[in-house]
Amino acid sequence: MDKRFGVKDFFLFSLLTVLIVIVLMGMVQFDRQWGEVQKLQGQLRDQGKDLQAIQRTLERPINVNVNVQGGGSGTSVPGTNTQTRPSTTASNSNDTSSGGEVTDGPFARIMAARKMAGFANGDWVVESFSGQMATVTPLIASDVYARYIHDLTLETLLTRDPMTLEWQPLLASSWKVEDKSAEFEEYVAKQKAAGKKDVEIDADPKLPIPVIVTYKIRPQARFSDGTPVTAEDFIWTFNWTMNEKVNAARDRSAMEKIRSVEKGPNGEVIFKFKEPYYNVLTVSGSLYALPKHFYEGLVSGPGGEQKFNDSVGWLLGSGPYRLESPTNWKPGSGQVVLVRNERYWAASGPFDRLVFKEIALDTVRQTAFRNGEIDLFEARPEQYDKMRQDTELMKRSQAHDILSLNGGYRFVAWQQLIKGKPTPFADKRVRQAMAMLINRERMVKEVMLGYAELATGPYSPAGKQIDLTVNAMPYDVNRAIKLLEEAGFKDRNNDGVIDGPDGKPFKFKLTYPSGSPNYEKMVLGFKDAYAKAGIILEQDPLDWSVFSSKLRNKEFEAITLGWGGGDPESDIYQMFHSKWTQPAGDNFMCYINPKLDAVLDKARRTVDEKTRMPLWHEAHRIIADDQPYMFMWFIKDLYMVDKRIQNFQLGPLGMPQTVKLEWYVPSAQQKWKQ
């Protein structure tokens, strides 16, 4: 049979090919059109919500010549029966039924920046993260990078003035603290004298509520989809956080003193506490408002908690910036991009975008700043020194450094329990010896180049909680060797390595974030110092996502990292109380000391500051002696900033993310575009 391919066959084949191409092109065009239709539908839904909000505003009665108390200001600490924080002046009042421009609280500083010569909206700020973010979903995202994102997209009832540290109203317009601690303590004492147990007392309906904090929510406050912020959102956020099935151990530990969150008769949000607590404003006023309508819809149905725990990109809030999509962010893109929230209810952000690039290596981040690819660079000491000496670079750069409450401290945590069995670090003498073998004063000079202050414990030298009589663990090699011998560690076979009571060589793996020459230099210093004492240190640098997983799951022998600060009076309960040795708790080194537990519990129940401070001092002394961490140093914030960014300031809190609303770039110097 003749099987040749003829002209007719070629024509038919070509026609078929053309038809296939036309069909494929049609499918692609249809997909594009469908995407545009979906985008248009989303815009129409958003516009509909905006029109509904406008209609609701227009339907409200407008009060004329009515003097209304507005936003609170100043520090409110339970100490009297009832304290209300109203606006300091009538002109700052924004708590009106008709809404209006918000200029009080933190927005006064923002509005002042807008009046500066050369102020202009527009441009981007491009920064960098030294690790890859795994999730931006609130509660389950626990690293510092997620906190940066959340502070710009989510909001709380109160915030602190970045310079004075005084409380200011944010989503709240005013607040009131009712302190019945004395009445509560008296009732509890009588019940205990009558032989009742704590469980019975807690269940007693006559038990007085010791502290009640009531917040009036600003009527203007809106989430980025146009939905009003209400008490229901705070109630849902609290209840969801306290759900044991949700991976939110850190936030639960902060809120465990709260009995309930309720809605008041006029839409207020009311926090009722279980017992007297010194930090009621921090706990209640710093709770993020998560929109109930958004998150409840995502977690509805069976297994909602697991859906939430497995999510990576669920983020919608009321802040000045937002994700372009509240559900579609995914890790691995190399950056996190926030765009201006066009519906922001107060003074909107000056920048079109805030971009956070994920750049693991310090040297690459430094090069990116030199090349103008990023605008702000948080430098390591050796980088900071070198860059300041570069005259060409400094022509277009600002250098800022400060020992702030946000700077935090670096530490090495010794794992005391692995798979239910004590490690060598379960012995206090071993932990003390490990600290005594390290010349930390020398490392402050050589590793940190003097841009740090030696730590004696978990409290900042800039705060009141530190006990100034506590000295840092001394550098004393001879004393360290004696302590190790007392704990049963000796070189029994003369091989240069000491052996434990079980006869095994003293060898451990130190886990730390990869990509940082500063960490590498520090760890190499440890390795050399321990080798001289017969201890083998194995380096274990890990990418941030793997590192954070190891930390969360307690899969390490020793780990080094840093805790950030932020609050003028920090609560170390979640890091050092034995309760938080539980899975995902921040006592990840499984440290247990009943005496410290009792002191922390008492300090947290003590409302009077003069009585409370000696308790924090006692906690400091216990921890400094126990050495669950080897406390290294409090770190200075070191920033290199592009000079085109105006009004850049540092205060006691360093550089909170919210101060970015006070920055701007003059029009002539703007460079980043869509």
How is the topology of this model organized?
Blueprint: H1 7-59, E1 82-85, H2 107-114, E2 124-129, H3 144-153, E3 158-160, E4 167-169, E5 172-179, H4 181-193, H5 198-202, E6 211-217, H6 231-241, H7 249-255, E7 258-263, E8 269-273, H8 280-285, H9 292-298, H10 304-310, E9 321-323, E10 335-340, E11 353-358, H11 362-370, E12 376-378, H12 381-388, H13 391-394, E13 397-402, E14 409-414, E15 417-418, E16 421-422, H14 428-436, H15 440-446, E17 452-454, H16 477-486, E18 507-513, H17 517-532, E19 536-542, H18 544-552, E20 558-563, H19 573-576, H20 594-605, H21 609-626, E21 629-635, E22 637-642
Helix pairs in contact: 14-16, 20-21
Q: Would you write up a description of this structure?
A:
With 674 residues, the protein is of the alpha+beta class. It has 3 domains: 102-110 and 134-310, Dipeptide-binding Protein, Domain 1 (Dipeptide-binding Protein, domain 1, Alpha-Beta Complex), CATH 3.90.76; 321-405 and 639-669, D-Maltodextrin-Binding Protein, domain 2; 409-635, Dipeptide-binding Protein, domain 3. A 6-stranded mixed β-sheet has the order 17-21-14-20-18-19. Strand 7 and strand 8 form a beta hairpin. Helix 14 (428-436) packs antiparallel against helix 16 (477-486). The longest helix has 53 residues, at 7-59. The radius of gyration is 29 Å and the shape is globular. The model is unreliable at 37-42, 51-81 and 86-99 (pLDDT under 50).
